């Protein structure tokens, strides 16, 4: 389905990024993987780059040659890392790499961003998020939230809320040319899950996995990223697909009380 297409996948050395790179390759695409860690047995082109600084993003973008057809922004760090790193990689690295590569994405191409089901309440913080993601100066934006315990204490959630807003902004800026969507997984069986247990609580994460019978596989998420890249999703733009096995629907339903 993707024969002849060149697709950039960040976070390609592990987990969802590795599964997505493998799935696109199997579907005929030429994948250009980017990750700070080396990727073993990577079947496409691989760029080792650190997306946590403006220079790292610029270096990565400079190594992507020619026209591309899509960008899957999957690299991410968990909330167990320092808040500056979480926000730098998950928000500004994603924003700047997208900005650098968008002019090279062919008409009709796609950008898909990895958000998270923990970002479901993002619209309540829309104004704060807009000020944050609009900051021209990356370091200044991080300094600006330094004193805000609500942000620094929930840096992962805040970062993925910012990704939800960035997705809408990027879609809106590229209407009719490049579709931009996000995917919001619940728990996925990848190396980052151990950090999520520390950050969100073991009981919460393991309780969800027990309820569902399993965590998602990386391939479960890659399948939806592939769908969003496909012609079948040609009218899907500026939106988010929750991929959590029904967890949020179940939790929401459980809170409802019968009238009476
Ligand atoms: N696993 C889950 O339960 C889950 C749930 C919701 C969302 N997500 C999101 O999915 C994405 C992929 O996570 P995963 O589960 O595959 O975890 P993972 O840890 O297996 O993969 C993350 C990848 O991002 C790369 N990365 C991190 N910082 C980087 C940097 N500065 N520069 C370049 N690459 C960097 C890592 O090296 C790693 O290969 C992340 O954005 C994560 O937040 C994961």
From TrEMBL:
Signal sequence bounds: 1-21
Molecular function GO terms recorded: coniferyl-alcohol dehydrogenase activity
TM regions (residue ranges): none
Pfam families the record matches: adh_short, adh_short_C2
InterPro entries xrefs: NAD(P)-bd_dom_sf (IPR036291), SDR_DHRS6-like (IPR051122), SDR_fam (IPR002347)
The enzyme's E.C. designation: 1.1.1.194
Family listed: Belongs to the short-chain dehydrogenases/reductases (SDR) family.
Name the record gives this protein: Coniferyl-alcohol dehydrogenase
């Amino acid at each position: 389905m993707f024969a002849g297409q060149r697709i950039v996948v960040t976070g390609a050395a592990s987990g969802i990024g590795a599964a997505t790179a493998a799935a696109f390759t199997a579907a005929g695409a030429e994948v250009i993987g980017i990750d700070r860690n080396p990727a073993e047995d990577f079947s496409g082109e691989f760029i080792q780059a650190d997306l946590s600084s403006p220079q790292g993003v610029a270096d990565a973008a400079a190594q992507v040659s020619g026209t591309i057809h899509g960008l899957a922004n999957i690299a991410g760090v968990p909330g167990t890392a320092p808040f500056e790193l979480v926000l730098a990689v998950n928000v500004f690295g994603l924003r700047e790499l997208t900005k650098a590569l968008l002019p090279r994405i062919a008409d009709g191409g796609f950008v898909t961003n990895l958000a998270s089901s923990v970002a479901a309440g993002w619209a309540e913080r829309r104004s704060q998020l807009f000020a944050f993601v609009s900051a021209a100066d990356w370091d200044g934006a991080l300094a600006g939230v330094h004193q805000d315990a609500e942000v620094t204490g929930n840096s992962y959630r805040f970062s993925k809320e910012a990704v939800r807003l960035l997705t809408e902004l990027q879609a809106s800026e590229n209407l009719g040319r490049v579709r931009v969507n996000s995917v919001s997984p619940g728990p996925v069986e990848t190396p980052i899950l151990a950090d999520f247990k520390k950050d969100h609580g073991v009981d919460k994460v393991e309780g969800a996995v027990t309820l569902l019978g399993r965590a998602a596989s990386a391939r479960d998420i890659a399948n939806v990223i592939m769908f969003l890249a496909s012609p079948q999703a040609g009218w899907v733009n500026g939106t988010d697909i929750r991929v959590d096995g029904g967890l949020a629907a179940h939790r929401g339903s459980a809170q409802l009380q019968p009238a009476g």
